[in-house]
Design brief:
By secondary structure, the chain is mainly alpha-helical. The chain has one domain. The chain has 3 helices and no strands.
Amino acid sequence: MPGGPSRARRPVPGRCGPSRAGAVLAEALEITPFRKLLYSSDAYGVPESHHPGALAFRQGLAGLLQERVDADEPTLPDALRIARWAGRDNAPRVCLLQTEGPEDD
């Protein structure tokens, strides 16, 4: 090949893109206690990929929780609580980090 080998993008084991975020989150919500579910970007790859990864998580979780609220599984306040726990509150608690302010359940 002229110019060297092809640099085709290969999937990175353990990572998923926006198209799979909903499916991965659905599985995680089935097997993980809500108070232990954590968001993590893993800070892997170029910094420019961290924001799209966080956005994919938020959109995937929001869509999944909305589907479940529509199916009368959790109530809206419960779904919002699950989103807050996974996206913010669980990490400092599970990792034993000190935070300021009241802890709201």
